[in-house]
């Protein structure tokens, strides 16, 4: 059997060296070759010696499937972290989005780490809905002998905390899997506990002792595509434009925020988000301090304003409160099983006022969790705004149980931030909400309310790059006259061709409510025709109703326009989703 | 009480040299129109395809609440004006919002009569699309404000469902035809209303554009033959707006002298109609600083038999169609045509088109141009209640009268009809005696009122800010406050019950007919007005500019000494407008051409 001469004669090696290399490479598996390629690339990039040198030809590494179901990108980020660490530890990791999961691969997966976010009222992230449904269904394959571990992400301010992670954990076991590490259910301050869990879990899943493990640390030079990823370091930025986009006659308040990065904006892409580190309403902090009998503690006041989540109330918060204070009435509430119902619409202040107790600063720290940053879809393109990032933030205000409530970040921005103020922010990339690679591809954008933000970025980007594809925006809000966010800019975009069409739905301008999904239905034939022509469809905004209704409207459009059965129409949309041509950024 | 048998103060025709009237029909060819240097609107009309323009496409442009500039001119012929809320204009650009555009929609309701069923539909429209307000206009119809573009077709469909329309409510056409409302004169009212409706219908544009654009009607396929599509108007309609009214003496509530064309009922001793005096060439609009533009009171031209009235109306309008100035819109109304060619030549041409010599006018007497508030009983034993509606704003006032809800409740039980007056008031007409108490109870329940102080019930204001694009100063939102100030002043001189007409407009186009009221205010700039005095109480004589550019805060101080003089030195029955001339405070205006002569105070007021 003649050896293949892999290296060309022109390769910069002596003939004898070429023969040796051909002998090694010709016999190597694709994995070995890929490893070598990465190794050599990393070696050069790091400009030095690797930390460890293989003593012997490597054994085939242990495969590890890392599944993630992500909405905001946190689970995905963690899956990447698992992958990196796993590789160092000698696994052959494969990171798989639930959106792309083929269930048939699971029985042969060997080892699985699943990281799942829970969304809204106990729902899987939108992209994961299909695979999750299949996995939970009767047709799911057995995974006897497969080792697994589940990391669940959630938000304790929602009733069904970590529901999806819990369900997956149970399901893998029911299908014959073997739990290699116990599940962790993590709240918004997940970063530290997640890192710990990952370490421990990989240890538990680790193959035989590590004498045959090649640990290669190339310092910065990773092997994944994170090379291309911009920095996630927090920046302090200056507010250079702060304007309420709604008219003074509107009952809504949507802040357009332009933030200037003095040291250069991170390399964000249209579709990415920016996290804002907010501060709490000092008045609310004062009320809490007063109720807790802690007035005058300036250091504590400062810490509560800047560092602790003093609004969220969860069952866990009440339990911690009971533990800290021994409050009898509060204990009864927990024991009665009615705490969950009582929480509805209430916040920490209600707890402290309803169950007065002398608290200490330590109590408050124990009861609360760290104040998380809040992500907003970026509304600008660097190609048009340079070192700025623009955001579109709706001030959230409502009343429950006789008390005015406000969204921590949005109202911080709306009420306490003005031109010239500083904010701490951090980039949060979203690779799953991206313009088509091909600038000639048409795009349909569905973004009511602040959901329009990323589409402002899309249109700016496509204008700057002179993309030839058509673009169609569906926008909606309450009133045409008072709530038409960025109206003048859309007019300009229509004028210069960076926007081809706009359809609008204003719910309160006429007796019946009209929403974006109604406009999609109204223009069903054209929507389907654009999609048949290869258009990508993007949806951004409210996850609870809008995104679901828009999706249903698109399915219905296939039904009516093409005469398909509901199942076939559904399959068409599922195909779009799998092909990343139906993308969502919902919240 | 001025006697007009025939006008004693008409200017002597001697000494005036008139131009020779044109013999050609108006230019309808685009090339020729450009060569002849016609006004911009003429080109728009020619290119519009009988008032279509690009309106249908403009409705589909969802990013803007506006329509194109040319369509903005055409849409007037459909009864609409594009407006924007000027109160919030300043903030819009900063907020990345376009101007707060909306449409004013004016209905065509000849004679201002609607049934209770129609009222209920109009009320629904107001609540659904037009900010919970119906507005009774100074020309006896309703208009809506604040209808946004996306709701135009729905609104028009609803209006159509009320068996009403908005065709020719604005634009260079014969607009809504007004008629005397006096319910006491049942027979004469019937005749006046019938003539108003006949004129309105026969001089209505015939293009199917309105139905096509607003009601998705079929486009009527046919040739481009103007004689078929617009037999009366032709392709270019009229040079300018054209307003027609029908009056029944002794009330001049329709302000006949302020209109292009008017008919004055001539009744015999038994109050039976014998025919009509025809008036021509009245009009209010002028431009500040341009003395070749001026208001003008109409001439009483001739008398026609009832059977010739419609023909005479068409003849007057078509002569204006052919003779009117199409190069300069500021000089295009019938009043200028008559000044240019002379009344005699105009009358001769009308007679030619009617096909017979027309008689000279008959004597008549007007006693005023206000409304009769409260209940009156008609000749037929039916009862009629005139309610006072400040500035015609039919809406629910917070903590005040509930006009919208009150009239709705009345419409639900009322069996007669409603009549709008030219003074923006509402008459609940044809109430059987047995039903009076029920109506009275509702009037009381909703705080409606059948009167106000003497000055207030004789007050009239145009809309102006924030919706009117022409307004230079506040009008409707300011006049009530000024009236309160002046009422104090009048009372201090014992004049609290004196009927004095007072009107204000935000610009000199004169929608509230300020130049024929005894006290007239015309906007010049924010809180700045020209003050006019000396018009006749019955609206038959123009006023004169008394003080230029007065601040709103100065007006009471200027008028107070004149009121004092009036209280002290008036003759029995003498009206304020006549007094200020006789006492030498201000020069008398004979008619339009001397409106700008001898202006200013002739002597210190005190």
UniProtKB/TrEMBL annotation, chain A:
Pfam families xrefs: FAD_binding_1 (PF00667), Flavodoxin_1 (PF00258), NAD_binding_1 (PF00175)
PANTHER family assigned: NADPH OXIDOREDUCTASE A, NITRIC OXIDE SYNTHASE-RELATED
The organism's taxonomic lineage, starting at the top: Bacteria, Pseudomonadati, Pseudomonadota, Alphaproteobacteria, Hyphomicrobiales
GO BP: cysteine biosynthetic process
GO-annotated cellular components: cytosol
EC number annotated for this UniProt entry: 1.8.1.2
Molecular function per GO: flavin adenine dinucleotide binding; FMN binding; sulfite reductase (NADPH) activity
Entry cofactors: FMN; FAD
InterPro entries for this protein: CysJ-like_FAD-binding, FAD-bd_FR_type, Flavdoxin-like, Flavodoxin/NO_synth, Flavoprot_Pyr_Nucl_cyt_Rdtase, Flavoprotein-like_sf, FNR_nucleotide-bd, NADPH_Cyt_P450_Rdtase_alpha
Flavodoxin-like domain ranges (all copies): 64-202
Reaction(s) the record says it catalyses: hydrogen sulfide + 3 NADP(+) + 3 H2O = sulfite + 3 NADPH + 4 H(+)
Source superkingdom: Bacteria
Gene3D superfamilies according to UniProt: 3.40.50.360, NADPH-cytochrome p450 Reductase, Chain A, domain 3 (1.20.990.10), Nucleotide-binding domain of ferredoxin-NADP reductase (FNR) module (3.40.50.80), Translation factors (2.40.30.10)
Name of this chain's protein: assimilatory sulfite reductase (NADPH)
Segments forming domain FAD-binding FR-type: 232-436
Annotated keywords: Amino-acid biosynthesis, Cysteine biosynthesis, Electron transport, FAD, Flavoprotein, FMN, NADP, Oxidoreductase, Transport
Enzyme class: oxidoreductase
UniProtKB/TrEMBL annotation, chain B:
One Gene Ontology cellular component annotation held by this UniProt entry: sulfite reductase complex (NADPH)
Binding locations of siroheme: 511
Cofactor note: Binds 1 [4Fe-4S] cluster per subunit. Binds 1 siroheme per subunit.
Needed cofactors: [4Fe-4S] cluster; siroheme
EC assignment: 1.8.1.2
Entry superkingdom: Bacteria
Stretches assigned to the Nitrite/sulphite reductase 4Fe-4S domain: 200-357
Family assignment from sequence similarity: Belongs to the nitrite and sulfite reductase 4Fe-4S domain family.
Functional note: Component of the sulfite reductase complex that catalyzes the 6-electron reduction of sulfite to sulfide. This is one of several activities required for the biosynthesis of L-cysteine from sulfate.
Protein name (database record): Sulfite reductase [NADPH] hemoprotein beta-component
Organism: Methylobacterium gregans
Taxonomic path: Bacteria, Pseudomonadati, Pseudomonadota, Alphaproteobacteria, Hyphomicrobiales
Designated gene of the protein: cysI
């Amino acid at each position: 059997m003649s050896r293949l001469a892999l290296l060309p004669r022109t390769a910069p090696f002596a003939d004898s060296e070429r023969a040796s290399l051909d002998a090694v490479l010709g016999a190597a598996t694709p994995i070995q070759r890929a490893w070598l390629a990465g190794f050599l690339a990393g070696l050069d990039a790091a400009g030095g010696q690797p930390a460890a040198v293989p003593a012997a030809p490597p054994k085939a590494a242990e495969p590890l499937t890392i599944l993630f179901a992500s909405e905001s990108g946190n689970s995905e980020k963690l899956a990447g972290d698992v992958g990196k660490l796993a590789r160092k530890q000698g696994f052959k990791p494969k990171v798989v989005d639930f959106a792309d999961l083929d269930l048939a691969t699971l029985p042969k997966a060997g080892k699985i780490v699943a990281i799942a976010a829970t969304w809204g009222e106990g729902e899987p992230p939108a992209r994961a809905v299909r695979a999750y449904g299949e996995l939970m269904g009767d047709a799911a394959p057995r995974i006897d002998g497969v080792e697994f571990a589940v990391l669940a992400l959630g938000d304790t301010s929602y009733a069904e905390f970590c529901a999806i992670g819990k369900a997956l954990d149970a399901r893998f076991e029911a299908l014959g899997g073997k739990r290699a590490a116990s599940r962790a259910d993590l709240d918004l301050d997940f970063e530290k506990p997640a890192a710990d869990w990952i370490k421990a879990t990989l240890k538990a899943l680790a193959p035989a002792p590590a004498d045959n493990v090649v640990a290669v640390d190339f310092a910065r030079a990773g092997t994944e595509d994170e090379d291309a990823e911009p920095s996630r370091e927090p920046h302090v930025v200056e507010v250079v434009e702060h304007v309420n986009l709604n008219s003074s006659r509107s009952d809504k308040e949507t802040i357009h925020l332009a933030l200037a990065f003095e040291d250069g904006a991170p390399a964000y892409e249209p579709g990415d988000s920016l996290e804002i580190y907010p501060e709490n309403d000092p008045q609310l902090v004062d009320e809490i301090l007063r109720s807790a009998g802690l007035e005058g503690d300036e250091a504590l006041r400062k810490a509560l304003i800047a560092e602790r989540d003093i609004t969220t109330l969860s069952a866990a918060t009440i339990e911690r409160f009971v533990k800290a204070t021994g409050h009898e009435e509060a204990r009864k509430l927990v024991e009665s099983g009615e705490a969950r119902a009582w929480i509805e619409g209430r916040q920490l202040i209600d707890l402290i006022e309803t169950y007065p107790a002398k608290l200490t600063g330590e109590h408050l720290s124990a009861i609360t969790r760290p104040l998380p940053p809040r992500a907003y879809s970026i509304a600008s393109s660097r190609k048009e705004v340079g070192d700025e990032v623009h955001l579109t933030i709706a001030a959230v205000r409502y009343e429950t149980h006789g008390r005015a409530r406000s969204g921590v970040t949005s109202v911080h921005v709306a009420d306490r931030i003005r031109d010239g103020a500083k904010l701490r922010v951090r980039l949060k990339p979203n690779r799953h909400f991206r313009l088509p690679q091909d600038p000639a591809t048409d795009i349909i954008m569905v973004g009511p309310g602040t959901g329009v933000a990323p589409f402002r970025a899309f249109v700016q980007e496509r204008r700057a790059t002179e993309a030839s594809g058509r673009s169609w925006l569906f926008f909606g809000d309450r009133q045409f006259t008072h709530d038409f966010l960025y109206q003048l800019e859309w007019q300009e975009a229509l004028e210069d061709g960076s926007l081809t069409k706009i359809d609008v739905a204003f719910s309160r301008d006429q007796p019946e409510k009209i929403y974006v999904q109604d406009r999609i239905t109204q223009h069903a034939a054209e929507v389907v025709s654009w999609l048949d022509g290869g258009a990508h469809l993007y949806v951004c905004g409210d996850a609870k109703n809008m995104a679901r209704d828009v999706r249903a409207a698109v399915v219905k459009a296939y039904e009516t326009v093409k005469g398909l059965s509901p199942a076939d129409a559904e399959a068409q949309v599922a195909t779009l989703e799998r092909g990343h041509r139906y993308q969502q950024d919902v919240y | 009480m001025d006697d007009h048998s025939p006008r004693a103060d008409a200017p002597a025709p001697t000494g005036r040299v008139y131009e020779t009237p044109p013999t050609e029909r108006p230019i309808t060819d685009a090339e020729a129109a450009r060569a002849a240097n016609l006004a911009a609107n003429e080109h728009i009309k020619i290119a519009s395809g009988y008032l279509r323009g690009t309106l249908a496409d403009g409705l589909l442009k969802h990013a803007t609440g506006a329509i194109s500039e040319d369509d903005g001119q055409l849409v007037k012929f459909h009864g609409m004006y594009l407006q924007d809320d000027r109160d919030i204009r300043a903030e819009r650009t900063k907020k990345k919002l376009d101007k707060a555009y909306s449409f004013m929609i004016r209905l065509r309701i000849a004679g201002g009569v609607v049934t209770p069923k129609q009222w209920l539909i109009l009320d629904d429209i107001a609540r659904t699309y037009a900010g919970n307000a119906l507005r009774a206009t100074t020309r006896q119809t309703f208009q809506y404000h604040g209808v946004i573009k996306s709701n135009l077709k729905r609104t028009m469909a609803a209006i159509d469902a009320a068996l009403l329309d908005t065709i020719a409510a604005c634009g260079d056409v014969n607009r809504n035809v007004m008629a005397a409302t006096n319910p006491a004169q049942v027979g004469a009212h019937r005749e006046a209303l019938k003539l108003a409706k006949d004129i309105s219908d026969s001089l209505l544009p015939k293009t199917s554009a309105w139905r096509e654009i607003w009601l998705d009607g079929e486009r009527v396929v046919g040739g481009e033959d103007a004689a078929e599509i617009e037999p009366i108007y032709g392709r270019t309609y009229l040079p300018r707006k054209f307003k027609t009214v029908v009056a029944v003496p002794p009330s001049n509530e329709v302000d006949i002298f302020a209109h292009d064309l008017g008919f004055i009922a001539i009744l015999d001793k038994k109050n039976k109609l014998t025919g009509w005096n025809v008036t021509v060439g009245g009009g209010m609009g002028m431009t500040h600083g341009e003395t070749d533009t001026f208001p003008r009171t109409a001439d009483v031209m001739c008398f026609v038999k009832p059977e010739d009235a419609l023909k005479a109306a068409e003849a007057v309008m078509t002569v204006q169609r052919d003779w009117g100035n199409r190069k300069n819109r500021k000089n295009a109304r019938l009043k200028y045509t008559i000044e240019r060619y002379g009344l005699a030549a105009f009358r001769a041409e009308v007679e030619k088109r009617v096909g017979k010599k027309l008689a000279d006018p008959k004597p008549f007497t007007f006693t005023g141009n206000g409304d009769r508030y409260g209940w009156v009983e008609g000749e037929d034993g039916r009862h009629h209640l005139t309610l006072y509606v400040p500035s015609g704003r039919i809406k629910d006032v917070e903590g005040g009268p509930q006009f919208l809800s009150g009239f709705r409740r009345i419409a639900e039980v009322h069996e007669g009809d409603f009549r709008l007056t030219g003074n923006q008031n509402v008459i609940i007409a044809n109430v059987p005696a047995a039903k009076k108490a029920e109506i009275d109870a509702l009037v009381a329940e909703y705080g409606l009122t059948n009167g106000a102080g003497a000055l207030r019930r004789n007050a009239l204001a145009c809309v102006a800010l924030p919706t009117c694009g022409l307004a230079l100063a506040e009008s409707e939102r300011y006049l009530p406050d000024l009236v309160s100030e002046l009422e104090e002043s009048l009372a201090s001189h014992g004049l609290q019950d004196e009927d004095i007409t007072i009107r204000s407009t935000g610009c000199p186009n004169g929608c509230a007919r300020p130049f024929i009221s005894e006290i007239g205010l015309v906007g010049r700039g924010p809180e700045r007005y020209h003050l006019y005095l000396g018009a006749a109480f019955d609206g038959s004589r123009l006023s004169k500019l008394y003080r230029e550019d007065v601040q709103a805060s100065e007006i009471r101080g200027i008028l107070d000494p004149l009121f004092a003089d009036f209280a002290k030195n008036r003759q029995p029955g003498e009206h304020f407008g006549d007094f200020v001339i006789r006492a030498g405070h201000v020069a008398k205006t004979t008619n339009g051409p001397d409106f700008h002569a001898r202006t200013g105070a002739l002597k210190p007021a005190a």
